[in-house]
Amino acid sequence: MSVARVMLVHGTRDTAASFDGVRALLPDLDVTTYTRRGWLPGAGLEPIELETHVDDLLAVIDDTPSIVIGHSWGGNVVIAAAIRRPDLIASIGIWETSMLWLPGWPSEHPGILRRAIDRSRQKLTESSNRQRERTRFIAEAEMAFAQHFDLDDVKVPCVVGVGGASLPAFGTGMRKVATVLEAEVFEIPEAGHMAHREHPTEFAAFVRRAVSLAP
User: Fold this and answer.
1) CATH class of 5-213
2) Are 36 and 58 in contact (CB under 8 A)?
3) Which residues contact 186 (CB under 8 A, 6 or more apart)?
4) What is the pLDDT of residues 41-99, one digit of tens each?
């Protein structure tokens, strides 16, 4: 690739705009972002399957080989897309994507996520906009408990990202993911889960590491 095409896929309770700071630090790359289905203002409450998100990502890629980075829940979309179309996805970066179904994932994490889901359910009667956000969060969070793909089916180079100041379960869990994928771990010591917002310079370096792995 002469000028690398990079796709950034956001997580739950987020939009494409959260990557603006990272994009500004990658002027030499062809960086594209998009807001995932369900997260734009006014979106409906209908269920959205992971495969639909994969369809959307591949439509944005539009037959242009790309390096794809997934933050949090967006990592599910990226992994599933890489399994489906390894001819279009040259390499991937996965930042703190919960895979509670994976053997060896920290046992305390499911309880933490269940409590977050319960808190959101208790507040579903608030404004319609908040109801949409919380309903979408609940749906995506619950998907973290079920296996939607096999990591052994990932055949493209990968780098796994973790924040040193994040939830300890992410550090342990993502290192387990890295072992399964035979991927390197990229740690940002001072970063939490929202590293792309709070530490854009370091997150841009994470993106560049994924780019460097592309054939």
Assistant:
1) alpha beta
2) no
3) 93, 159, 160, 161, 162, 205, 206, 209
4) 877 878 899 999 999 999 999 999 999 999 999 999 999 999 999 999 999 999 999 99
pLDDT tens per residue, range 134-177:
999 999 999 999 999 999 999 999 999 999 999 999 999 999 99
Instruction: State the residue for tokens 């793909």.
Output: 149
Beta bridge partners of 158: 92
Q: How many other CB atoms are found less than 10 A from the CB of residue 62?
A: 10
